[in-house]
Ig-like domain-containing protein (Bambusicola thoracicus), 193 residues
Amino acid sequence: MDVPSSLPAFCVLLPGSATMIGALSGSSAKFPIRVENFQNVPKMSWNNNNCSMAVVNDALLADCHSSSKRWLKLENSSLVLQSVEKQDEGNYEFCFNDTKVLFTLKVYEPIIDARCFPNGTADLTCDVDSSESMMFKWLLNNSRLDANEACIKAGGKKVRLEKTVPGEFVCTVTHSHGFMRTRPIVLSCSYGE
Ligand SMILES: *[C@@H]1O[C@H](CO)[C@@H](O)[C@H](O)[C@H]1NC(C)=O
Ligand SMILES: *[C@@H]1O[C@H](CO)[C@@H](O)[C@H](O)[C@H]1NC(C)=O
Ligand SMILES: *[C@@H]1O[C@H](CO)[C@@H](O)[C@H](O)[C@H]1NC(C)=O
Ligand SMILES: *[C@@H]1O[C@H](CO)[C@@H](O)[C@H](O)[C@H]1NC(C)=O
Ligand SMILES: *[C@@H]1O[C@H](CO)[C@@H](O)[C@H](O)[C@H]1NC(C)=O
């Protein structure tokens, strides 16, 4: 990806393109920067906004935008941005020791849906707009939905309930470095007479 740079010219980009980082909404995004500590205050830009930076106890406080000050913690040579939200998406540039590294952050939000059919069955769907591998599981009233109650298809993205049962359904998504629960859905099927 060709990203117009806002960082100073002495900050040299090593060959290679921006690394895609995917994170589930509410979980942490890890930018592997391979830096053990901050000798100098690193430079950073987010979506081409220069950020003003402060280093406090091996964490960075980045002010990239009038409304969003964010902490980035250094953990295991990665910068960790906690509780990411959709608005954290975009292009991140860091400059350490005159070397520039680029990342593109994508934040995944699962989409859930429930549909009742006139014959008393129902479909639940849970999906994430990503080609990365993720694991989908369903809970009913906080217990794992079992195969007697439901036919689980497409690796958990789709569930057919043979009969609708009262209770709260929650989809859980596990990603290589993140986990999230969706808001609960309560099935309310009305079948008329
Ligand atoms: C960001 O900072 C660099 C270096 O100080 C400067 O050349 C560039 O114009 C700035 N970019 C923006 C968008 O302010
Ligand atoms: C950055 O430079 C300092 C001082 O020259 C050096 O000690 C440090 O290891 C360098 N860090 C990286 C990530 O290259
Ligand atoms: C750091 O890496 C070690 C070894 O890979 C791992 O055991 C540990 O959980 C990691 N810590 C964090 C905070 O990610
Ligand atoms: C119930 O209706 C749905 C949607 O029309 C259909 O796909 C499903 O096979 C039906 N199930 C039974 C047990 O009749
Ligand atoms: C789930 O909990 C609700 C409220 O406590 C209860 O009415 C319902 O019967 C429970 N459903 C199942 C399948 O246990």
Observations:
- The domain at 111-186 is CATH 2.60.40.10 (Immunoglobulin-like).
- The chain has a mean pLDDT of 87.
- The radius of gyration is 22 Å.
